[in-house]
Amino acid sequence: MQAGKPILYSYFRSSCSWRVRIALALKVIDYETVPINLIKDGGQQFSKDFQALNPMKQVPTLKIDGITIHQSLAIIEYLEETRPTPRLLPQDPKKRASVRMISDLIAGGIQPLQNLSVLKQVGEEMQLTWAQNAITCGFNALEQILQSTAGIYCVGDEVTMADLCLVPQVANAERFKVDLTPYPTISSINKRLLVLEAFQVSHPCRQPDTPTELRA
What we know:
Layout: E1 7-10, H1 15-26, E2 32-35, H2 48-53, E3 61-64, E4 67-70, H3 72-82, H4 93-109, H5 116-122, H6 127-149, H7 161-175, H8 184-194, H9 197-201
Parallel strand pairs: 1-2
Antiparallel strand pairs: 1-3, 3-4
Helix pairs in contact: 1-3, 1-7, 4-6, 4-7, 7-8
């Protein structure tokens, strides 16, 4: 592997970026943050320089070991394969499948439907309702799944990639004023995860580009 500090192109509020920040914190990987403001100047992700780095014009993007990786789950899996401690994918293949299933459900079946790029297409008047419906539909399924897979966390009693996806998505739900009362399993797991240091230091309220009024 090439020497040099990894560089994470991130936006403080991006739930996909938050997943990667949690993984980097859990694995104690020192890195540099380059903020990409998804709103300022029409969206800095649309600049020619960033588009050359990531043709999809999305965060997160991670430069590490001489390569550039896009997509949060691909980044986390690369970190898992190259820096396997602590383990974020269980050794047991059945549990590993559950972790990937939950991660994909959130990263592919919930978050993209309430993402900024989609909400812009929906129109301002419908954005809140659209996001709430997308999250509620996904959480209805997720709550049922977690009732059969969860221990202390999403899959058993160890933090996994599924948990890295869960916490940012619950934060999205709270931001869009989704009633979490029907989701006691999701809520209790989220509460237990938020007290862990890796989830705290990676939180959107503690990033280099967090606006002053949102800092904690």
